[in-house]
Amino acid sequence: MQRPENTAARPTPAAPTPAPQAPAAHALAPDPRTPAVALDASAGEVLAPYLHARAGDFLRGLRRHQEAGSDGRSAEEAARALRSAARRVSATLYTFRPLLDAAWADQVRGELGWLSATLAAEHSCAARLTRLLDALHRLSGTRVPPPRGDTGTLAVGAARAGALLDRQLTLTRTRAHSAALQALGSARFHAVADAVALLAGEVPLGAAASARAAEVLVPAALDAEDRLQRAVAALPLARAAHPYNAEALGQESEGQDGPWHQVRLLLRLHRYAREVLDHRPGEPERPERTAAAGVALDRHRDAAGAASAAAAAARTPKIAPATAYALGVLHADQRHEVEAARFTFQRVWQPGAVTTAPAATPAAS
Amino acid sequence: MQRPENTAARPTPAAPTPAPQAPAAHALAPDPRTPAVALDASAGEVLAPYLHARAGDFLRGLRRHQEAGSDGRSAEEAARALRSAARRVSATLYTFRPLLDAAWADQVRGELGWLSATLAAEHSCAARLTRLLDALHRLSGTRVPPPRGDTGTLAVGAARAGALLDRQLTLTRTRAHSAALQALGSARFHAVADAVALLAGEVPLGAAASARAAEVLVPAALDAEDRLQRAVAALPLARAAHPYNAEALGQESEGQDGPWHQVRLLLRLHRYAREVLDHRPGEPERPERTAAAGVALDRHRDAAGAASAAAAAARTPKIAPATAYALGVLHADQRHEVEAARFTFQRVWQPGAVTTAPAATPAAS
C-alpha cells in the first residue's frame, strides 16, 4: 500500500516505448550545452564538488536528526533534509554512473534507496492521513448541519470512515516510525553513513571522468532529459487535457498510474542532473515550470495513494454500510484528484495545447 | 426523488437576483425584432396558428398513444410527442399570458403540467436506471477480469449495487406506469384533452392580442430571454469554467443544483418563445448553441437525479458494505457528471472565456 520515496532504485526502462512523434529538442531550455559550469574542466572536477556538497548536506541532516531527539518537528525537518540530500546523491550516482566507479555507485545507490524509503514511510503515512481527513471534511461539509439531503448520508459515514482511516494509518505510521528508529540504529545504516562521509571528501571516479565535462557530463545529463521527454511523450496527455473525461474511475485510469509515477521520478532525475551542471542546487532552469510539473506529479502520486488507502479501508471486515459509502465517495474523490493532477501537468507541460469541451451530442427536445 | 418534466409549472422567480454585471444585450441573436413572422399582423394572428399547430401535435400524439396499446416502443414514442407538444403549449401560455384569457391560460397550463409530469415519470425512471447501470458498468470495468486492485473491491459491490438500483427503480417505474395509465383514463385527463382540442380550433385571446405583434408579442418573447439571461448571469460560471474545482462533492455543489435546473427551464421557455416568433418549431435561432446548452442542462438534471438515486439507495437498510461502497463511488461519479455538465454549459455559453488550470502551489523538493 505504501509507495516509498525510493528514487534511488534504478527506474525500470520507461514502460512505454518512445512515441512515434519524436520527443523533439530539449524543450526545457536554456540549452544545457552552455551551462553555468566551466565545461573545459574535467567531468570529475564538476561532478565531485556537487557530490561533496550533497554528502555534506546529508551529514548535517543526520547530525541535526540525532540532536533533535524527541523534538518531533525538528526531527521531521532533519529527516526531510536527510532525504533530500540522499535523493540528490542517489540520482547523481544514477545519471552520471558512466563517470564513476560503477560497482561502488550501484552499491551506495541501493543503500541510499533503502534509507530514503525507510525514512519517508512515516512522513508519507502522516501526509496521506491528513489528505484523506481533509477530503472527508470537505465532502461531508460539516460546517452546515447536514439535514436530510444526499450529503446527510455522507456525513453519517464520513465521521466513521475518518475514524477508521485514522486507526489504520496511525497504526501503519507507528510501525514506520519504529522501523525508521531501528534502521537509524542499525549497522546497515552506519555503513551508509560511512560511505557518504567518505563521499564528502573523495568521489570514486571512473576513467571517463578525466574527459572534458562537455564531452561526457553534458551528454549524460541530456540522456536523463531524453528519458523524461520520451516518457512524457508516451503519456495520454491529449486525454488528460480533456477535463471530466469520464475515465477518472475504473481500471483504465488506475492502469495508467504507473507511467505517470515513472515520469515523476524521471522529472526529478532530470532536475538533479541540471543541478550538477548549474551548480545551483534548488534552482533548476525555468524553475517555475519544472517545479509546477513536479508539484502536479507529487499531487498525482499522493492522490493515487490516498485513493488506494480508501479502497483498502473499505475492505475492512464488518464496517457499517454508511462507512463503506463514505469510503466509496472518498475513493472517487481522490481518483478525480488524480485526473485533476494529470490535467494540471498537461497544462504546465503543453501550455499552448487547446483544451476542448467534453463532447455533447445535441438532441432536439 | 422523481423530478417530473413539469415545465408547465410557472417557474419560481429566478432564485438568484440579477447579477451586478448586466445580462447585456440579447446575445442569442439574430435580433428578435426582425423575426420570420409578419409583425404587422396582430399578436393574435401570430400566436393562434402556433397554438393551433401544437394542439394538433398533442391530439395526434394522443391518438397514436391510444392506437399503440401494448406496443411499448410505439407507446413511448407517442408519449414523447404528446409531452413535447404539451411542453410547447404550456410554455406559450406562460410566456404570452398577457395576450390571452389569463384565467383560462393558467388553468390549462396547470393541467398540462400535471399531465406532462405524470407521463414523464416512467420514462425518467427508465432513463435514470440506464444511466446508473451504464456508469456502474464503466466504473467496475467488467471487460477485464478485476484482479486484486482497487477496482476489484468496486466490482464486488457494483453488481449488487446494480441489482439494488434495478429493483428500486423498476418498482418506481412500474408505479409510474400504472399512474400514467390511470391518469390517461381519468376524467381529469379527458378535460385536458377537451381543452386542447378546443385550442386546436380557437385560442381564447385577451384584448391585448389585437395589438401589433411587434408591440406586444415580441416584448413578451424578449422578457423570456431576459429572464434566462439574468438567471445565467447569476450562475457561478467562472467556477464551472475551472475544471476539477474540488467542489463537485459536498453541499456547496448540491446547493447550486436549483439555480441550474431553473436555467434549464428558462432556456426551454426562451426556445419555445422563439419558435412562436419564427414559426419554425424545432429550429431555434443559432440552433447548435441553444441545442448544445439544452443538452448540457438536461445532462445536468439527469446526473443530479442519478446521484440522488445512488445516495437514496445507499440508505436502504441492511445492504452489504461492498454495495454501499459502490454506491458511494457511483454517487461521486454522477456528481462529477454534474460538474462536467456545468463546465460544458459554460463552454457553450461563453466560448471566449479562458479556462485556467487548477491552482498549484510550487514547492521545492
Features:
11 helices, homodimer, disordered N terminus, 365 residues, disordered C terminus, flat, CHAD domain, mainly alpha, 67% helix
Indicate the CATH class of chain A: Mainly Alpha
Q: What is the helix content of chain A?
A: 55-70%
Residue windows where pLDDT falls under 50 for at least 5 positions of chain A:
1-34, 142-147, 280-284, 356-365
**Oligomeric state of this protein:** homodimer
Estimated radius of gyration of chain A: 23 Å
SS-based class of chain A: mainly alpha
How many domains is the backbone of chain A divided into?
A: 1
> What is the element string of chain A, with H for helices and E for strands?
HHHHHHHHHHH
Please, how many helices of chain A?
11
Based on the coordinates given, report the CATH architecture of chain A. Answer: Alpha solenoid
- Provide the residue-averaged pLDDT of chain A: 83
CATH superfamily of chain A: CHAD domain
What is the fold named in CATH at topology level of chain A?
CHAD domain
Region (Disordered) (chains A, B): 1-36
Biased composition (Low complexity) (chains A, B): 1-12, 22-31
Organism (chains A, B): Streptomyces hundungensis
Domain CHAD (chains A, B): 40-354
